[in-house]
Structure formats: structure tokens, C-alpha cells
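User: Round two. Same drill as before: sequence, then structure, for each protein.

Assistant: Same drill it is. First protein:
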Amino acid sequence: MIAAVEPAVSNPSRLEQLKKTVSATRLSLFLQCRLKFFFRYVLQIKKPVTPSLHCGSTAHSVLQQWNLSRWKGEVFETQRFKSFFEKQWKDGQEGKVIKWEDDEPEDRDSSWRALEHYFTETPIKQNERPEAVEVSAEADLSHHGLPTLIGVLDLVRQGGRIVDFKLVGKSPDPRQAEHIYGVQLTAYSVLYRDATGKREAGLELHHLVRTKQPKFILTPLPPATQQQHDRLFRLMDAYQSGLDREDFIPSPSFACAGCEFFNECRKWSG
């Protein structure tokens, strides 16, 4: 199948683990490119952290602290979160090699500016106590003949509005964002309903845009429909069937130019 890594192609124990559960992240990657999924999750090939991933994970840590701070009823202090951001930025690079494409200080500063702008523009009031913050959840879907769905909800606002944060480099198109993140948002809906027995009040995408002049773009969405749930289950079924067949084929596209497994993919022989 793949000359460079052929001895590790058949890894029954790893495949069995992947069949038992599925997350929105894994499912999305499998749908995007099955060979990339194979490299990342079956062979577990490690790659250097990208600048965008480091920016995103640092911002995510700050937002998590901000949500926890509101949950505890603490007073908001910008300097406190800036200090936390700077520590996370530094600590997140320890033991890692990040190939900064441009200027690390600019990436750092633009990420912080996006956060600072969000804190002033967010529709979430400081006294609004979250319903849940960074909660791990799972839904047993064996009655649908599907693996267990797992995931982590960034934030659930009071009243059951599920929020997902995105740090991006350019302004998203709301309609495209709804489609691109449809798998993730619908998965959150399934997890929330399974955990609470209630339907979510709605879903929200909070895009923090780290352009020169930072922006915040809110994309509010209604609760997921039954059609969206059925679509997710159908995609999960394709995931399960693909793993059963060890169907790990490439999906050539313009996205290949930025793929970390480009060289490994070039060696694939079918």
C-alpha cells in the first residue's frame, strides 16, 4: 500500500480503537482525505506544530480561562489575561520546533489583538455565568449501529447555547462557515442532547479574526435539525465502513500544497 511505511499498514489494535469512538475532528479529516487520516491517526506520524496551530491553541487557552473566570464570578482584568497569554505563548513552544513563516512577534501580537478586541465586542456579558466550560462528553450511538461519539464543548452559555471559538487569519463567509463546521456543530448538538436530555437553544460560531485591524464575527445558528443529525449519522457510518475496509485513499486537491504529509503521500502506491 505505502512503500515507506508498509510494515505498519496493518495495525489491528489501533484500528479497533479508532472504530470504537469517533470525534468531529477525526470524522472531518477522514472525509477530507482518508490517506491523511491514515498518516495522522493510524500510523500516528508526528509533525511539527504549525504557527497557526500554536496561535489557535494559545488563544483557546486564554478563552478557556476567561470562561472559567466568569463561571467563578471573578472580576475581569485585561492585564491578567495578557500575562496568561504571554506565558502560554512561551510554554507552548517548549520542546517543539515551530517554523515561523513570517515574524513570530507579529503572529503573537496579532493573536493577542484579536483576543483583546473580542473581549470588548463579545455579546457575552461579564456577569453571564456559563452553563459549562470545556466539558468532555460522549454519546453511545450503538442503537444506530454507530461508534460512540466523543467531543469537548468549548462553552455552553446560559439557556443552552453552544459556542465554538475560531481564531482565523481572514474574515469567514457565514454561509460557508456554517457548512464547513457543520459536522462539528451537529456533533456538539448530539452530545449536548445526550448529556442533558434537552435540545440546545442554538449554536454560535465566534470567529476572532487576527487581521491588522482585528475583527469579531458572530455566526448565530438555530438548533440542529433532524436532517442534520441524520446527515451526521450517515457520515459516521461511512467512517466506520471505511475503517472496516481499510479504505485509506488520497483526495488530491489544492489543499495538498499545505498538507504536512505531502511527502508521505507522494510515496503512496495504491
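Second protein:
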Amino acid sequence: MLLFLVSCLLMVGSEPAGEESPRDWWIGYSESRNDLPEGQFANWITRRAYVVRADGSQRRSIGAELASQEHSWTQFAGWSPDGRHAIVYSSWEDPANAQWEREHKTFRMTEGWLVDSCLVDINNGSIQNLTSSKRVSIYNTGLFFLPDGKGYGFTALLDGISKPFQMDFDGGNKRDVSGGGTGFSYGYSASPDGSRISYHEDYQVFIANSDGSNKRRIETGPYSATTLYSDDDGITWQVSPSRIALPKRGAMEPHVEETGDGRVLMVMRNQLGKLYFSESSDEGATWSEPWASELITPESCPELTRIPGTGDLLLIWNHHYDPTFRSHYGKRSPLTSAISKDHGKSWQNLRDIETDPSRAFSNPGCRFTRDGKAIVNYWTCEYLPDWRMQDVIDLRVAVIDTAWFYGGKSSR
């Protein structure tokens, strides 16, 4: 069976011409197989960049010539500011490198690749491969347009380390603007006037002049989370004056749920070894100081939701903590559930959904069907012999009778 995956719906561009209605806009995306049993690489090489009108008409492949070489593929990645050109990645991988990656269950980005950022004219189909001219890297992505026609920004992998670069409109004059940094850079962007750039380097925020000079780290202070709330069904949003601060990397990846007594409860990922909660008694406008529960956890994302029918709270998280573990302060296993019958004040009925210690289970979500079953989704991957999580992950779904969370048997 031929199965397509829409993998990259990024933005909408239009052909410049007077007044146009939304149905005249182009939508860019990628299509690929995801059902081939030979593995990730076999599915990757089927990926192609496409555009389609906003009304669903005129669907067509773009930049097809970029995938003419065996073991290559294309990917839609964005639009030029005027909508005339699509940004398309041209990718090729050596099958031997792909096989090595599959055997070792991790990516090897220092050899066996050739990835370029290209512009495809949406009207005549002409292609300009910007990063192949005077090449600085075998892996070039993240292309964006610098303000005021000053060229392009992109990121290049050098010995597996991502670096911010700039180049002129013809693809020439490529220059490293990392300011001599040695860390892995990402989130690279430019100020509206093009005079300054910013990026993350090893989880720290840096700004610099556009040429990389005068680089300095921005002191972000204690890590904290900000919440936004809406009183009109999401049409507009207001920023809460409350900031939820925790040590180390702070409060991350929160989940919120309304309790049966009218409060809003938040649970958050953190690096402190316990699940932390905060509450709001004014529908999310302000939040309490966070407090630690008795539930241990590594640094991973928890799920919080209410069970239809009973109104009890259901919590799903990794019930493990080991500060000496290689990463995330412990294994992301087991994946455990708990019930609160007192609106989050205490938790009972701890049950393990997944227990394999050789695998990580993370980022759970949960929704309920009309007949009382929980649909729990999460991703999983193997731990490598050195206890790193492999880079290739799988999605799983567990269908669980609600009664199981209370201690009953399940028809999973």
C-alpha cells in the first residue's frame, strides 16, 4: 500500500500580482512513504517537495531534478519573502552510512551525507543551489533571507557541529559568523534591520554583530516559565504576570488541567528529581509558587488529564530518578500512571504502562473514547550500550480500559 506522510507544512506564499484571494496562494509541503519495512533510509529517499493551491488544486512536485541522483530526496523548507521562490533541501545519503546508522541506532553526521539549501522559482521551475557554490560543509540547512536584501543566513555542520553562516545572494562569500564559538549552534536568526544576529550555543543565548563580532552571552536569569491565558476561546491571549521559576534548567513542558473543585493544576518537567506542581484559582490568570510532590521523576515530560465520568485526575510520567545516570537524571522508564481523587492533593493507584529498562518511553499524551477507553500515545527508543538514547524513535499507542488505572484488569 502506498502511504504518504505530509511531513513539512511550513508557510504560505503567493505569486506577486495585484489583489489575490487566499485560494490563489501556494502551500508548500513534503510527501514521503512511511510504510516501507526496510527502515528509515528506504522511506526517506521517497520524500519529495510539493506545492498545491490553497483550494487543493494544481498539486505538483517542485525541484524534482534535485532528486535525480540515486539515494537522494527533496524536502520543502520555506518561502522567500515575496513568495516567488520555495526553499527546498536537496539531500543525499550514502547507503553504507545509512546502514551504519541503522546498525548503531544513531546518526553519523560527519560523513556519507550531502545536503544543500536551494531556491526553486515557483513560476518557471528554475533552481539555484546556493550552498553548493564554494561549499563549506556537506550538510547545509536552515536557510533564511537576511533583511534588506543582504543575502542569506544558514547553518552548516562542520565535523558534526552546527555553525551559523552568511552568504551573498549568488551563494558566494560564505562566512562563519559564530564569533569563534565551539559549541553546537541552533535557532539562528537576524534582527529586523539586519545589523545583529542571535542564536543558541550549547543552551545559552548569544547575540552579535551581523559579521559575528562583538559576541556576547545574554544573561537570562533564573529559568522560569510564562503562561498565557485566553478568555475568548483562543481568539486573543493575555500574558500572566506570574512566572514559575525552578533551579537548573527550570520549569519545562508543562501540562495543565482543570480540577473538579474549580482550580487549574499544572505539572511540569524539571531537573530536581520530583514532579512539581503549581495551581491557579483564577482560571490561569495567576499561578502559585511551585511545590514538589512525593513522586520521583527524571527530566522528562509528564501528562495530566481528567478522566471522563469520574472527574478524577490521571497523571502519566516516568517513575524513576537517578542523578548519576548518563542523561536526564535517570531512565525514562518505567512509564507509570497514577490517580488523584482529591483534585491533585495526593496520588494513588500507581501502575506501570511500560517497564522495559532497556528502552526510553517519553512525551505521553492521553485522550478518551466514548466507551471509556484511554488512548495513550508516547514515543520510545532503545538505550545504547553506553546508555545514550538512540536517535531513531518509534511512536506507540496503548489502548487501556479506564478501570485499569484504578487497579482493574485491562483489555489492552
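The chain has two domains: 4-217, 224-405.

User: Perfect.
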